[in-house]
Amino acid sequence: SLVAMPDIVGMSLSQATKIMSAAGVRVGSIDTVAGGQEPGIVLASRPSAGVGRPRGGAVALVVSRGPEPSR
Q: How far apart are the first and last CA of the chain?
């Protein structure tokens, strides 16, 4: 059965993981990118919020690793 992907953008990775687990999907790959936000914040998910996903299916996340260090 399909479950709707929850909207987790802007959440911490730990909070997003809990919400995804409750919705019936799991974290798959995690890509980290430099961003202006604090580290560990979900910037995007594949599939995005609202898209149907098989129960137990993996979701790819993009997570911030914080701002680029200044030189």
A: 50
Residue 39 included in any domain = yes
User: Does any domain span residue 59?
Assistant: no
How many structural domains are present in the chain?
Answer: 1
CA–CA gap between residue 30 and residue 44 (Å, rounded) = 10
When pLDDT is averaged across residues 13-21 and rounded to a whole number, the result is 98
pLDDT tens-place string over residues 37-59: 789 999 999 999 999 999 999 99
Write out the residue range of the structural domain in which residue 23 sits: 2-51
Residue type, 57: G
Q: Report residue 49: phi and psi, to 5°.
A: -55, 140
d(CA 37, CA 10): 9
What CA–CA distance (Å, rounded) separates 47 from 13? 16
